[in-house]
Every structure is written in C-alpha cells, then in structure tokens.
User: What shape does this take?
Amino acid sequence: MRYWLALASLGLNVVAQAGLPASTSNNYAAETIASGLEHPWSLAFLPDGRMLVTERAGRLRLVTIDGKLSAPIAGVPKVYASGQGGLLDVALDPAFAQNRLVYLSYAEPGNNDLAGTAVARARLIETASSARLEQLVVILRQQPKTVGGAHFGSRLAFARDGTLFVTMGERYQRDRAQELDVSFGKVLRIRPDGGIPPDNPYVGRKDVLPEIWSHGHRNPQSAAIHPATGALWTIEHGARGGDEINIPLAGRNYGWPVITYGHDYSGLPIGEGTAKAGMEQPVYYWDPSIAPSGMAFYTSNRYPGWNGTLLVGALKGQALVRLTLKGNQVVAEERLLGNAKQRIRDVRQGPDGWVYLLTDADDGAILRLKPR
Assistant: This one.
C-alpha cells in the first residue's frame, strides 16, 4: 500500500504529447569497446565495472572494461531463438554484491513450437578460469505460451521497494492485451522469488492474474525507474507510428489496441481512435516510429547539461535519442549518432558516468559515447 501511495502522490494527469522536432548533434562519437557479439540485447554492470551482456542467440558473456569477451557462461536456460525471440534482458539483484543473483528474461520454448517470455534467476559463480550460473529457477512464465516469434517484450526493472517489474509483449495477438486472464501486453510486478506482492492491484480476484500491474500495452522494450520519483517508466513499440512513453500505474489500462496513435502496417486505422474514457494517454509518442529499445535516466555529469535527461535507443531510427524532461513532460528531443547508421538495442550508464550502447547486428558491439 505504501508503494501505491507513493505513486499516487505523483499526481499524474497526462495529456499525450507528440514527438517534438528533433535537433541533431555531431558533438559526440561512439568508440567501440568490444565487438563480435551476435545481436546483443542487454547489458548490466557488475560492481567492479565489468559487464554482463546477453546475446539473443542464447549466450551470456562477461566483458571486461577493455573489451575482452569471456567464453559463453554455462548454465543459461535454453531459449527460443527465432524471430525476435531469444535471450533478452539481464538485471542484477539489488543486493548482488552479497548474493550474486542475476535475473534473465528470455523467450522460453514449449511443446509444438510454442514459446513465451519467461524470467529466471540464478547465482553467478566465478573461478579463476570460468564462470557459470547455478541454482537457476524460473520465477515467472508468460501465460499461456503461443506460436510465433514476435513481441516477447521484455525488460526488467527493480523498484525501490525491491519488487521486480517485468514487461511482456502481446505476442502479436493485439486483442489479448486487454484480457486480464493472460499476461500478453502487460506490465507485471512480482517479488524477486516470483511471489506476488500483496498490494498488487488485482490480488484477490480469481478472474485476473495477480501479477498484473497494468495492461493494454503492445510491445514494451524499454523500462527504467525514475531516479527522483521512483516511478516506473516504459516505452513500447507502436505499429506504424505510435511508439509510446508511459508511466504505468497500478490497475491502469494503456489502451492497446483500442486506442493508439499508430496505424496498421497496411495503412488502415487500428481500434477506435486516440482516446477513450477509462484508458490512459502516453506521456509522449513518436509518429513516425523510431522503434525504441533500451532506456536510461542519466544521473552523472560526464556530459554537461545531461543530468536528469532520458536516453533512448532507436532501432529503426538508428540513433541515440536524448529527451530533456521538465517533471513528467518532454520539452526537447535531440538525436545523436545518426551518421553511424547503427541500430541501438540498449542504453546504460556505466559506473564511470559514461554512456554505453549495444548495437543490434550479426556482429554487434558495445559502444561508449564520447565527446568529439
């Protein structure tokens, strides 16, 4: 209940804001820290500055700050590496320094070519010559598994109260994002062991999955906790237009596919328009789409004037997008690295204050953003 009250105090009264005219900057360049990664998806910094990096094909690697790749870490769960599926996000337990727990989200294979997003946690064990995951337990599974290789989500974000937010794509079954007995198109909230927090909005209702936090999402591939308010922010892919930034609140409906600022890939409209009573508006949206993936609030001073801004990777947009915020409102948009023509899959602030990026490619790389 205290977590709900804290979020309610945000006083959100959102009016959707269309993407602002974006300025461009050539004042920054990306230096390659490491390469040879097959479609890297997510990056997490260890306390000593090394990185854990997922490859969509199903590999997890340690990477030193000078770019040396480890052999694939043993003990990673089997993944459904097809289409957009595979090994996805990685996050460290807030008490990692003491318990060495690592969380992975991934497309989990099932029988008859079915698959669904899952989350597992395991303990990272290192020796002088190798690393492995032990005591792996699946703590969450998308319900139900289904066919197809699209829209798995999935990002992980630990809230200040220690609960874990998990974003779930609607698996390209748009209407199911509105159904509360399945986990397609949802933000879920669980305890680190997979249990259900007793203050989740639907606890006690037998017709609703108790892990659901919010619904009506399409394919959220960005999630981060706001450093000042503690609120969860997410970004989801629209269809043809309509990529959305949302601040998901407990029990709220974010509209997909009933309302959207996008259109079908055929050009035809989707749903009933852009607004409807009982459905929330995005904080900000892009039309045309940039295909956002990975986001981070920047909290250091390596880049003058950036503290407090929101950084977003763009796949289709092939850029790093920097959004200047005033409270919960976006007041300026800047695009960087557009000349590099790189699909940016993840964005992270390193413990050294520099910004690190993952590129989505057969020969993907870890980049560090530096002033020219």
